């Protein structure tokens, strides 16, 4: 059966019986739906009778929250699938009037197929049951006009689905605040207003658990703080973070899909407390295991620093989702930082077409901030078969007596920049232009065109040697405009703090001088903004080697057919 872009999975089994079925059900659904899978919980729903089935409220219990967590944990095995558990019919215990259940809800991606775990009596794709399923789906949600339906049991199962609940308690989504045990059937209290915060980069299933619990607890308004500015500096690979506006857009779409009855206030989070530290109307705060201390700090801030003192927020501490496929340098939890690490070496945007370059040569521009490890990456690429052009060496040739830039530089800056033997003293020359934009432009206007010409000559040598991939290693690749003569820009990034440490150790500079050097260059963020591939030397050398080899292997697969044939 052809894959559908979006689907709706209606789960009808009682929750204790549903838990052991979730993994095979999600696997079956993932075989049919390739983009967005909505999940609708309606335990006890029957599709076999003559009467039109209608949605009803599902009391929010701790067992429901545990099933939500289990669903998203299972969905993490199918990362290409965007799973969203719909919560309009899940109602917490509250003094407020419950939200009405029964109106048709619009979804961002109208389902093209509706799936269910409901079993027809004869175990077949029984048409009356499928017709009832389609009627039920369209009475709840906006679906595509040509809606298909599939009974996942047994024809589309990955194996026999357990019919009875396993005598194993579900892992608790919410860590108890005290050693007092809670019952799975215990109702979850509802609150008018609550909050949570996070980076929400590349919205993933662990985020969705936090957000879903918050949506169940909140009855009127949910404040969501999205980390921005200084709070992003300590993140792993901050250069690869999605822009704030993109993160907000994806977050907003998810929240409106799962519980449209709530009012969502999505705000920038620029300090550790955010709105939770000062909003007197908030009643609860959802945190994860690793941010629980931050939640306690918010409560201390509310009590000690806000006048008049605010009441403490009720803290809901959510268990982290474990990442079963994490690698040695990645966290063992489902994490955006691990996702960003997995982007290293992959193609981030389509390559440039460069018809003016030799047709039998594919050129990479390699760049990075000072001390990023760019040269070590260049050496690794050379060992894999690339022809490497070192722009620093070309610069030395350009400055050397008899070089094309020698006389124009001496005329522009005077003979006092020369050693006694007539060679240009690059340290003296560098001190003349450092921090002086006008003088620097005079120098680069002379030297960069010469290096461009020398680089093109080197590319011809690469072709003569039978090389198919050429690397132009240049710290000023983008400043000099040399990205216009490469097919792809590859950037090596490290945190600024690590770059400062390396510069101080390598060059013997003070911390202030190291910072000054970095501030005179384009930032890693600016470089990545124009890059096709990003690498990092932050971790152990063998991790860097793995990244480079992966990037090289992926490059070989996208080389033009004519170049692959030469290889």
UniProtKB/TrEMBL annotation:
Keyword check for ATP-binding: yes
Q: Does the keyword Signal apply?
A: yes
List the GO cellular component terms: mitochondrial matrix
Identify the keywords attached in UniProt to this record, alphabetized: ATP-binding, Coenzyme A biosynthesis, Cytoplasm, Kinase, Mitochondrion, Multifunctional enzyme, Nucleotide-binding, Nucleotidyltransferase, Phosphoprotein, Signal, Transferase
Q: Any signal peptide, and if so, which residues?
A: 1-19
For this chain, one GO molecular function annotation is: pantetheine-phosphate adenylyltransferase activity
Q: Which residues does UniProt call coiled coil?
A: none
What Enzyme Commission number(s) does the record list for this chain?
2.7.1.24, 2.7.7.3
- Localized where? Cytoplasm; Mitochondrion matrix
Query: Which principal EC class is assigned to this enzyme?
Result: transferase
**Which reaction does this enzyme catalyse, per its entry?**
(R)-4'-phosphopantetheine + ATP + H(+) = 3'-dephospho-CoA + diphosphate; 3'-dephospho-CoA + ATP = ADP + CoA + H(+)
- Boundaries of each Cytidyltransferase-like domain copy? 196-342
Q: Which GO terms describe its biological process?
A: coenzyme A biosynthetic process
Q: Which PROSITE patterns match?
A: DPCK
Gene3D superfamilies reported in the protein's UniProt record: HUPs (3.40.50.620), P-loop containing nucleotide triphosphate hydrolases (3.40.50.300)
Metabolic or biological pathway: Cofactor biosynthesis; coenzyme A biosynthesis; CoA from (R)-pantothenate: step 4/5; Cofactor biosynthesis; coenzyme A biosynthesis; CoA from (R)-pantothenate: step 5/5
Principal subcellular localisation of the protein: cytoplasm
* Stored HAMAP family: Dephospho_CoA_kinase
Role this protein plays? Bifunctional enzyme that catalyzes the fourth and fifth sequential steps of CoA biosynthetic pathway. The fourth reaction is catalyzed by the phosphopantetheine adenylyltransferase, coded by the coaD domain; the fifth reaction is catalyzed by the dephospho-CoA kinase, coded by the coaE domain. May act as a point of CoA biosynthesis regulation.
Q: Which PANTHER family match?
A: BIFUNCTIONAL COENZYME A SYNTHASE-RELATED, DEPHOSPHO-COA KINASE-RELATED
NCBIfam families assigned: dephospho-CoA kinase
Q: Which family does it belong to?
A: In the central section; belongs to the eukaryotic CoaD family.
Q: How does it assemble?
A: Monomer.
Q: What protein am I looking at?
A: Bifunctional coenzyme A synthase
Report the source organism. Answer: Heterocephalus glaber (Naked mole rat)
């Amino acid at each position: 059966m052809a894959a559908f872009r979006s689907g709706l999975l209606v789960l009808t089994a009682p929750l204790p019986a549903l838990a052991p079925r979730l993994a095979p059900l999600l696997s079956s659904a993932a075989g049919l739906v390739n983009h967005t899978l909505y999940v609708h919980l309606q335990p006890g729903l029957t599709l076999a009778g003559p009467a039109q089935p209608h949605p009803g409220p599902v009391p929010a219990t701790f067992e429901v929250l545990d099933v939500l967590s289990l669903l998203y944990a299972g969905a993490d095995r199918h990362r290409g699938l965007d799973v969203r558990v719909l919560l309009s019919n899940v109602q917490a215990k509250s003094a407020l009037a419950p939200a009405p259940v029964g109106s048709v809800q619009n979804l961002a991606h109208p389902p093209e197929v509706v799936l269910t775990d409901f079993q027809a009596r004869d175990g077949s794709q029984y048409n009356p049951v499928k017709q009832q399923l389609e009627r039920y789906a369209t009475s709840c949600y906006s679906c595509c006009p040509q809606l298909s339906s599939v009974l996942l049991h047994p024809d589309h199962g990955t194996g026999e689905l357990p019919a009875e609940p396993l005598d194993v308690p579900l892992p608790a989504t919410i860590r108890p605040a005290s050693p007092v045990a809670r019952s799975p059937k215990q109702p979850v209290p509802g609150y008018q207003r609550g909050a949570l915060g996070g980076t929400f980069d590349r919205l993933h299933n662990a985020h969705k658990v936090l957000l879903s619990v918050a949506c169940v607890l909140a009855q009127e308004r949910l404040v969501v703080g999205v980390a921005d500015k200084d709070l992003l500096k300590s993140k792993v690979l901050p250069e690869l973070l999605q822009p704030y506006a993109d993160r907000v857009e994806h977050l907003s779409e998810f929240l409106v899909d799962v519980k449209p009855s709530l009012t969502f206030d999505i705000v920038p989070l620029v300090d550790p407390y955010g709105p939770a530290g000062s909003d007197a109307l908030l009643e609860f705060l959802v945190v994860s295991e690793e941010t629980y201390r931050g939640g306690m700090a918010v409560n201390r801030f509310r009590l000690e620093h806000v006048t008049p003192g605010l009441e403490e927020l009720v803290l809901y501490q959510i268990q982290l989702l474990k990442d079963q496929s994490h690698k040695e340098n990645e966290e063992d939890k489902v994490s955006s930082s691990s996702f960003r690490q997995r982007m290293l070496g992959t193609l981030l945007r389509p390559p440039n077409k460069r018809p003016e370059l030799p047709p039998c040569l594919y050129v990479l521009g390699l760049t990075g901030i000072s001390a990023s490890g760019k040269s070590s990456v260049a050496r690794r690429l050379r060992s894999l078969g690339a022809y490497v052009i070192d722009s620093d060496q070309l610069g030395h040739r350009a400055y050397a007596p008899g070089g094309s830039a020698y006389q124009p530089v001496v005329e522009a800056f005077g003979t006092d920049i020369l050693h006694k033997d007539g060679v240009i003293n690059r340290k003296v020359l560098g001190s003349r232009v450092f921090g002086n934009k006008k003088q620097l432009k005079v120098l680069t206007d002379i030297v960069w065109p010469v290096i461009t010409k020398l680089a093109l000559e080197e590319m011809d040598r690469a072709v003569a040697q039978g090389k198919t991939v050429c690397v132009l290693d240049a710290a000023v690749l983008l400043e000099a405009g040399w990205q216009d003569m490469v097919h792809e820009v590859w950037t090596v990034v490290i945190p600024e703090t690590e770059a400062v440490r390396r510069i101080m150790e390598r060059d013997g500079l003070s911390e202030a001088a190291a910072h000054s050097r970095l501030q005179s260059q384009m930032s890693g963020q600016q470089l990545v903004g124009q890059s096709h591939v990003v690498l990092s030397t932050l971790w152990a050398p063998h991790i860097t080697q793995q990244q480079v080899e992966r990037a090289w292997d992926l490059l070989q697969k996208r080389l033009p057919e004519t170049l692959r044939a030469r290889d």
